[in-house]
Amino acid sequence: xxxxxxxxxxxxxGCQAVRKLHSVPLxxxxxxxxxxxxxxxxxxxxxxxxxxxxxxxTTLEREARxxxxxxxxxxxxxxxxVRRQERSWxxxxxxxxxxxxxxxxxxxxxxxxxxxxxALEVSRALAxxxxxxxxxxxxxxxxxxxxxxxxxxxxxxxxAVDERLPTAPELLDGGTSISGPTYMSPExxxxxxxxxxxxLFSLGVVLYEMLxxxxxxxxxxxxxTMQRIRHQPTPPLPVGVGPISPLVERxxxxxxxxxxxxxxxxxxxxxxxxxxxLSQIWGEPSALSxxxxxxxxxxxxxxxxxxxxxxxxxxxxxxxDPSPARFATIWPAAGGLFAAFCLIVIxxxxxxxxxxxxxxxxxxxxxxxxxxxxxxHLRVVADPWADVIVDGQKLETTPFARAIPLxxxxxxxxxxxxxxxxxxxxxxxxxxxxxxxxxxxxVGERVK
Length: 448
Known about the structure:
It is a single chain. The radius of gyration is 23 Å and the shape is globular. The chain has helices spanning 59-68, 100-107, 112-131, 186-189, 196-212, 222-231, 246-255, 267-282, 290-310, 342-346; strands spanning 15-24, 27-34, 39-46, 78-84, 87-93, 97-99, 134-135, 144-147, 152-154, 161-162, 376-383, 387-390, 393-397, 404-406, 409-417, 420-429, 434-440. The strands form 5 sheets. The chain has a 5-stranded antiparallel beta sheet, with helices on one face. Strands 13-12-15-16 form a 4-stranded antiparallel beta sheet, with no helix packed on it. It is of the alpha+beta class. Helix 3 packs antiparallel against helix 8 (267-282). The protein has 10 helices and 17 strands.
């Protein structure tokens, strides 16, 4: 996504915005410098289109309060929350690296050691959150960040639940996961209350995807995906980068059990299983550090892939060994993160994403391109309700309109209610951006 120009960047008290990274439902995310420290931070600011009287306006403060309760090396830390008149924003820890979604888009799948290590760190983050009675409810690759030095962070607690705080407003599409149904548990699909084992199911889907390059219940449309999550048995793990042990297969399968009571009892129990699976891969201790072992494994995989690509006929080629400087040697003693150095090999975009991708919308006609490549998304919420007309075509009806994927560029929006004047808006969408319109229909006024 093209960063915003300096002239377009908003001012944040105590921070100098450097660039806009992306938009997520309800908020825009910026890279900034915190003054006078000069520290790189993330700014997550409430979208300008949200009315200050909207219940969604409290979402950002609620997320900041939740994060302030969580102090764990694998959870994105909050530095500050600022509320000024009609604007509010969170100052967050900056992670110089990638989202797991970006890594999977670049590489498709990971070696078992890397996938298990990332899942292990996320499970530890969840164990800490669950101990504070907080359920994340949206564990998916966009919300898992991995730094260049191999630190894994769980982010985006916008829809998390905490029995000590009021329930978060229902999402704009009426669901309980910003990312849509792909990573949802059966109980979320049914609209039932989430508990800690809900997060374990979602992490199981993520682990399945990291190991195989596929998601277990994907379908062409939202309804079929939800049906598969509820009823279809988990398909066996396809063969990925390397062999998958029976212990790993059992761990993934247990995470993906339909009934909560059949899953792991806690994130702590899952962490122990993942640690045991990693121990099976590495075996007995040796003179090599875990970092060097992983570097060797990834180097071997990359060399084999490069050799195959450059020699489609199967003829051997001479490949020079990569320099040891290609891999960092920092390995946090308490973290045990074996995935650190696959990220350096992968490379890719350095922009991190905190929000999820919306599901594709059914094509209505050839006049308006829906679900285009590199789509932007439009979300609309209207009080009390309205028909959403985009460029002359009726696409959705609020209050729970789904995100509409649209081609980047200018679009003309008309909201219609039988007892209110039409509301007209013009939106400019950039590739990958999500824009939210939060509009109160003037019910009772004379309709012209």
